[in-house]
Amino acid sequence: MFTGMAATTFEVLAEPTRRRILDLLLERSRAVGELVEVLGLSQPGVSKHLRVLRDSGFVDVRADAQRRFYELRVGPLYELDEWLAPYRRLWADRLDALERHLDETAEPDPKEPR
Description:
This protein has helices spanning about 10-15, 15-25, 30-40, 45-55, 75-105; strands at about 30, 60-65, 65-70. The protein folds into 2 domains: about 10-75, Winged helix-like DNA-binding domain superfamily/Winged helix DNA-binding domain (Arc Repressor Mutant, subunit A, Orthogonal Bundle), CATH 1.10.10.10; about 75-105. Strands 1-3-2 form a 3-stranded antiparallel β-sheet. It is elongated. The protein is α+β, with helices and mostly antiparallel strands. The chain contains 5 helices and 3 strands; from the N terminus they run H-H-E-H-H-E-E-H.
């Protein structure tokens, strides 16, 4: 659980509620009250998750009179995407090798013209 110290991206995203909040903010910016309603959590509970997301740079907040609107910031997601890129390449290479292997070892389809 987040304890007030700087959390890593993975610690932030490991929490399912925070991932759900990011999914909701991907659609559009939302007021805290709307997030509370959609998530079915208490306002203090949602606010704690929003604070973690804000402190880690995943969301921005803007005030509109008495309401607070949260919106997604893409910067940390780009950083995460860049970090994942070599792993995607690794899996793509392995899947390509598997496809080649399956093509080489496949029995010919008797319905296919030769």
